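Exercise 7. Given the components listed, write out the predicted structure of the assembled complex. Treat all entries as one system.
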Amino acid sequence: MTSTATLERPLDAEALITDMGHRARAAAAVLAQTPTATKAAALKAAARALRAAEADILTANAGDVARGEANGLSSAMIDRLKLDPKRLEGVAAGLESVAGLPDPVGQVIDETTRPNGLLLQRVRVPLGVVGIIYESRPNVTADAGALSMMAGNACILRGGSEAIDTSRAIHACLTAGLREAGLPEDAIQLVPITDRAAVGAMLRAQGLIDIIVPRGGKSLVARVQEEARVPVLAHLDGLCHSYVDKAADPAKAQALVVNAKMRRTGICGATETLLIDRAFADPKPILSALIDAGCELRGTEEVRALDARIHPVAANDWDTEYLDAILSVALVDGVDDAMAHIAAHGSHHTDAIITEDQPTADHFLTGVDSAIVMHNASTQFADGGEFGLGAEIGISTGRMHARGPVALEGLTTYKWLVRGTGQTRP
Amino acid sequence: MTSTATLERPLDAEALITDMGHRARAAAAVLAQTPTATKAAALKAAARALRAAEADILTANAGDVARGEANGLSSAMIDRLKLDPKRLEGVAAGLESVAGLPDPVGQVIDETTRPNGLLLQRVRVPLGVVGIIYESRPNVTADAGALSMMAGNACILRGGSEAIDTSRAIHACLTAGLREAGLPEDAIQLVPITDRAAVGAMLRAQGLIDIIVPRGGKSLVARVQEEARVPVLAHLDGLCHSYVDKAADPAKAQALVVNAKMRRTGICGATETLLIDRAFADPKPILSALIDAGCELRGTEEVRALDARIHPVAANDWDTEYLDAILSVALVDGVDDAMAHIAAHGSHHTDAIITEDQPTADHFLTGVDSAIVMHNASTQFADGGEFGLGAEIGISTGRMHARGPVALEGLTTYKWLVRGTGQTRP
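Answer.
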């Protein structure tokens, strides 16, 4: 996956990342004490710089796109890579939006006074240094850099070689924003080489990088999880289910299922498996609506008996995140059977029940062990923006630290402040 | 480190841990839905079983101690290993205390209604399966098992070979408690072999074990951090500092420093380095009081000039957690110099400032990047019990998930519940 944009000089990736890490640590110490307004000013200045540099960025992007086409990138990858004035304005507006988010740093999570008079407070503080490893979406350079910085962290961005010239051009605007606000440029660093050894060095940079956020396909996330010595905030599969209970409203169920599958098929919150209660009145209109909307259905024999256009389902379909207009369909015996299917095949991302029966809904909400569990809502709402977080650096499917959509708060930790008046411990 | 207690049959550690992990996952699914009262009843029943089994446990413990002495364990290790009726009663009382703690599971952390009417709630849920790897303290079997279970988790306990017979006897009481409360015995499992390969298998048990908590010395924690593929809640060094500012009250400073160092020298919250402002009126009485209390002081030349009994300090002393009656002492130029020393040599555990000047204290509290930062209090307060958490499974010096003393809340995560009325995403 090297490209003509790869620097050719024999730079030692380990030494490079160590140096960047030390500089990031120093910048993080400054950022941790930086007032909200200064961080916001840096992002607003970066947005202005982005707009002013539109021509340069689009030229750089055209070069990346041309190289990608010459290298035979898929049309989906080219689409992710490609910027136009509208998309670039979206990136700039995104920076301004992050600048307007409430700053979690300094928030008192809770406080308590002990019988001996000690006042204990848990206060939010930045995580420190965030390492972000991503692929061909150049907007991640701006989004991830902005979120990390607004939460008081320094970050080290390692973008994919496919988008490296675009990433450099966008990164220059972020740096200009930092400079204009009087903040250290080392607060947002872009790894200057696209050598894969740089990824390995980041994954091993314990003590210099506090958390790694991988943004990309399964092979990237798998490599990160296998090699990382630094904690990882990982987004794995989004194998989401929608379950239509016997007590579902048929019209609502049809609208929800079609939206959950077909609104956008390539996002992680898209439903991949439809479970229908055998006691539900009539599944046929739902299946028909899906097929009419362009979805390929794969079902068990009893599902296929409902509509001749349904293809047979294979055993591994239940464990496949299609990210496409394909849906596996099974009939189940009520909510517990649905929950057992989800426990066996789900990816702990987002799962939904459609029912008008509140106790059944509560049973599902409590019992399904996923980052997001929904009642009478489309799984496509699994998104930081839709959750009111203003943005997201990813959707965590792990259980540690942060779960579900992660924005500013997920990029912080806390410390305990203990305020005494001379107390010694007996 | 094998002992006569090691099972000799050729059990495949990987297969064993995989089987235990699957059984733990199944138990965790039950525990996640178990009401607080049932979990508490299991712990109270376990406490009764412990008291009833006192003779058997002490006999098992005497065997462990005799074997340890024959194997040449240090007197400190023998002391950690040894139980007597009073210590055993403490273990039983500890179970009852955990049974009385507020249950974090089901707590609504926050909720918000979106403009489209979706109600979002973040609700605390158990982490899942906790793996605890510890050494010779047999009470960890009870403490860690109880905390994990009360937070709704299943756990897999891997105790050291030195204490294995004691751990088995205590574990039998926990199992009896689970049985009496109608809970699955697999909720608290003890690894039946002391083969070190079992540790390796636990560290690699991704998907079966959700978090590893190492409880033990540096070599154990280092191995865990090096090998673990499962997230780790680690307690590293407690290289704690007390800083005496120029505006410190001399009598308060003396009492705090002597307590912070000498109350118990072997705990992680003990101060290991004393920093004194060069502008502080008279450090001599503090140094003298420490020496009179039996502490060996190691100081720079200017410190040694204050008292002839002070030994020279070596460069690596500043980075040494003595866990003994030894203290490094340096003079510094005010609070910023002290903070720079702590940033260079601290372990992000607990650091304290002693001053009557509030702005200086706030500057220190904000600027020191440690899990616990104190003002006018003894660093020996760094303890879950002293923080009102009722217990602790450890003190986390990492930045992810939980920081500082970790009790029930740190053994939970959260999920997002989304309650809708048929909303589709535009």
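Discussion: Chain B touches chain A through 64 residues (CB under 8 Å). Residues 13-31 of chain B form the longest helix (19 residues).
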